Amino acid sequence: RCVIGLIRMVAPAEGGCGSGTLHRRTPTTTAAPPSDRQKARRRKQKFMSKLCDSGFEEDLAPSPSPSPVRIEVLPLRPHAGQLPTWFLQYGDIGYRIQKEKEAHFHPCRSLEQQPQLTAEARCTLVSWLISLHKYLRLSFESCCLAVNIVDRFLVSTPVAADCFQLVGAAALLLASKQVEVCSPRISHLLSFCCDAFTKEQLCNLECLILLRLNFRLDAPTLAFFLDYYTNYLDASRLESGCRFPADSSLAQKVCELSLADYAFNKYSPSVIAGSALWLTSDLMGGQWAGELGSHLALECKDKLKLLVSLNKDMLETICTL
Amino acid sequence: MEEKILNFEPLFFSPSSQNTRVLCCSTMNKMKNFKRRFSLSVPRTETIEENDFTGQINQLNIQHIQAPTGDMLGPPSQDVSPVSPEPTTPGAQSPSHLLYHSKAQHRRFSMEDVSKRMSLPMDIRLPPEFLKKLQPENENSPLCKPLSRMSRRASLSDIGFGKLETYVKLGKLGEGTYATVFKGRSKLTENLVALKEIRLEHDEGAPCTAIREVSLLKNLKHANIVTLHDIIHTERCLTLVFEYLDSDLKQYLDNCGNLMSMHNVKIFMFQLLRGLSYCHKRKILHRDLKPQNLLINDRGELKLADFGLARAKSVPTKTYSNEVVTLWYRPPDVLLGSTEYSTPIDMWGVGCILYEMATGRPMFPGATVKEELHLIFRLMGTPTEETWPGVSSNEEFRSYLFPQYRAQNLINHVPRLDTEGIDLLCALLQFDTRSRLSGEAALRHSYFLSLGEIIHNLPDTASVFSLREVQLQKDPGHRSSVFQPLGKTLSHLYTFNSRWFLWKN
């Protein structure tokens, strides 16, 4: 088990960012329109980014500056309340295929063989990835895939603490290349790591991850299952004449929390997605329209409930709803 | 209840009888299940295991007895052992026995047997160095230890997987969107392959098209999707090894003078839809369907290729090498700027390809987005709120100010297509993505009824030609080789001969 050396080679010589300098979970992530004061601060932040440890401020509300990934949404999209075409045409069989595939892409106990990394370090990294993907306006699927890539890479390769952030950045780069129209620019990504790493290091690590994962990036994600179950609930609601779509944004927040928490590493994405929707339905005082979950889903739901109660900002979000 | 437990207790639960009784008294119902499960599973598995074990031992013994006589293993010996060993008694573990056993194994490692035992493809040719390597190892360890993980890994690369030396480049086939494609031959199987070389040195690291193509194709195992055999990673290059198909639908149409047999059109359509709906079920879009991307081999098998754009949400108008991407097969919703990421996007292109196969000319050969839309609306009618809900609020559509064309009757444009075919074409060329036919539904369209019912139950990896009733016919426009344009390879002649052969039978 001396693979750390291999990783260390891509780590910066001058020490770089320790995992401790990574960013904490952002307290507010609501998509409020940015005020002038925020804009001013962001301008300042851009200026300060070279000085600050990790390159950006604690709270990352969506940036007002046009990001390269910005896509114009045209009114050709299906009307609200309508179900997506794919769900109607292929939903059931597609879901079954992803469900079968899920186990092959599920990294269990990814930290078990890691000599340096702790669950806290993973939490910090994933929290950073969550706020970063929002800032770059990437899809939730990219974010879930990035976390899956990180975890599967950790199973294959021991990683030194000082280049854990580089692994996260490379995973987000790969995930967005796989899923998005445009992936973030490498230099842009590196600036979020306080320029502690070079482009060459990121590219080398990207290649190494591809090889270690044997190019298998087409993993079923938490986002897929959340999407499918939401559509499924919507469909049964539409059938029963109820016009209110399921509130997936709260469920997505719960899923985000679970991504960052290593305790949920053992649950497969489909179980977490189902439990998260179940929990939000409970929290909103609604009737659970989905199937009553297995023992595992119940256990996961209870843990998610605990996790939500531990995160104050989540409770605040619920209260405002 | 109590009785039953007592009945089987002495047999199976004797050590823990106390416990089971307590459980039984407290929760009757649970116990019922518990008990049933136990009575079904535990004792039986135990006995089965035991039986298996003894069975294995017996088998081993039989092998030990029979191996020396040469009945069971290895080819009917060329060397009918001149030095016959002493007849071994069951269970006799003499050193001489072991020695002989290893000799018997040694004899087994002919090329055929190695590939048979390792369940390698029948056509694989193992390099002699590899065979040599196997043998001394076995002499050293006559007890034939199971291969360790490390040695298994090493042996895969030993036979040439993942190595550039295994493939001989034969000639350039063309420049792809982000790669160069060569024709090649595998030294391992002597089969022709297509080698797609992707340069990895880009400003933004590994190109996303390559990442998508590899990661998606690794999961797609279907008779109508091109197979990715191997991936070779060198420092600057990533080489993808694909199965080689000598033609594509564009060339095929050219070669038959743009006059295909309508029966063959149906078979090609079915194969295209089969491959595509397999992808769509996996939420994978092709996004760049065109005749050049539908490869065709000498048996008439059609395979989807070039998955580079497959996951992209928008189709770029220019490639990396600044070539213009064709607009001919692009649906109006994408031309008008929709970024909705869904499967109907491919289905429009399938309709265009059906038209092209049936008429021999592209359906909407527009050079610009405006011209493309204009051609579409002139034939299919300018969309209204009725034919395309939401179109009137699309800014881009309104800015073009198209005249109000009425939809034309497609039968006048595709006279060779029967009524069912026209119906299928119309269902594929719907403006509204929600009413456009899905790939899965298209396979069940009455147009394909004449292909029979069994064709729907084929396993994914089975070709439609594995059914005897599905055969290509001679294309009426097919000219003899004399009239073939210059520069066509011999493999095309072969294509025509074999097609002719299929038709005759």
TrEMBL record, chain A:
<dbReference type="InterPro" id="IPR013763">
    <property type="entry name" value="Cyclin-like_dom"/>
</dbReference>
<dbReference type="Pfam" id="PF00134">
    <property type="entry name" value="Cyclin_N"/>
</dbReference>
<protein>
    <recommendedName>
        <fullName>G2/mitotic-specific cyclin-B2</fullName>
    </recommendedName>
</protein>
<keyword id="KW-0195">Cyclin</keyword>
<feature type="domain" description="Cyclin-like">
    <location>
        <begin position="127"/>
        <end position="211"/>
    </location>
</feature>
<comment type="function">
    <text>Essential for the control of the cell cycle at the G2/M (mitosis) transition.</text>
</comment>
<dbReference type="InterPro" id="IPR006671">
    <property type="entry name" value="Cyclin_N"/>
</dbReference>
<dbReference type="InterPro" id="IPR004367">
    <property type="entry name" value="Cyclin_C-dom"/>
</dbReference>
<keyword id="KW-0132">Cell division</keyword>
<dbReference type="InterPro" id="IPR036915">
    <property type="entry name" value="Cyclin-like_sf"/>
</dbReference>
<feature type="region of interest" description="Disordered">
    <location>
        <begin position="16"/>
        <end position="40"/>
    </location>
</feature>
<dbReference type="Pfam" id="PF02984">
    <property type="entry name" value="Cyclin_C"/>
</dbReference>
<comment type="similarity">
    <text>Belongs to the cyclin family. Cyclin AB subfamily.</text>
</comment>
<dbReference type="GO" id="GO:0051301">
    <property type="term" value="P:cell division"/>
</dbReference>
<keyword id="KW-0131">Cell cycle</keyword>
<dbReference type="InterPro" id="IPR039361">
    <property type="entry name" value="Cyclin"/>
</dbReference>
<comment type="subunit">
    <text>Interacts with the CDK1 protein kinase to form a serine/threonine kinase holoenzyme complex also known as maturation promoting factor (MPF). The cyclin subunit imparts substrate specificity to the complex.</text>
</comment>
From TrEMBL, chain B:
<dbReference type="GO" id="GO:0005524">
    <property type="term" value="F:ATP binding"/>
</dbReference>
<feature type="binding site">
    <location>
        <position position="196"/>
    </location>
    <ligand>
        <name>ATP</name>
    </ligand>
</feature>
<comment type="similarity">
    <text>Belongs to the protein kinase superfamily. CMGC Ser/Thr protein kinase family. CDC2/CDKX subfamily.</text>
</comment>
<feature type="domain" description="Protein kinase">
    <location>
        <begin position="167"/>
        <end position="448"/>
    </location>
</feature>
<keyword id="KW-0723">Serine/threonine-protein kinase</keyword>
<dbReference type="GO" id="GO:0005737">
    <property type="term" value="C:cytoplasm"/>
</dbReference>
<keyword id="KW-0547">Nucleotide-binding</keyword>
<dbReference type="InterPro" id="IPR011009">
    <property type="entry name" value="Kinase-like_dom_sf"/>
</dbReference>
<protein>
    <recommendedName>
        <fullName>cyclin-dependent kinase</fullName>
        <ecNumber>2.7.11.22</ecNumber>
    </recommendedName>
</protein>
<dbReference type="GO" id="GO:0005634">
    <property type="term" value="C:nucleus"/>
</dbReference>
<dbReference type="InterPro" id="IPR008271">
    <property type="entry name" value="Ser/Thr_kinase_AS"/>
</dbReference>
<dbReference type="Pfam" id="PF00069">
    <property type="entry name" value="Pkinase"/>
</dbReference>
<feature type="region of interest" description="Disordered">
    <location>
        <begin position="67"/>
        <end position="96"/>
    </location>
</feature>
<keyword id="KW-0418">Kinase</keyword>
<dbReference type="InterPro" id="IPR050108">
    <property type="entry name" value="CDK"/>
</dbReference>
<keyword id="KW-0067">ATP-binding</keyword>
<dbReference type="InterPro" id="IPR017441">
    <property type="entry name" value="Protein_kinase_ATP_BS"/>
</dbReference>
<keyword id="KW-0597">Phosphoprotein</keyword>
<dbReference type="GO" id="GO:0004693">
    <property type="term" value="F:cyclin-dependent protein serine/threonine kinase activity"/>
</dbReference>
<keyword id="KW-0808">Transferase</keyword>
<dbReference type="InterPro" id="IPR000719">
    <property type="entry name" value="Prot_kinase_dom"/>
</dbReference>
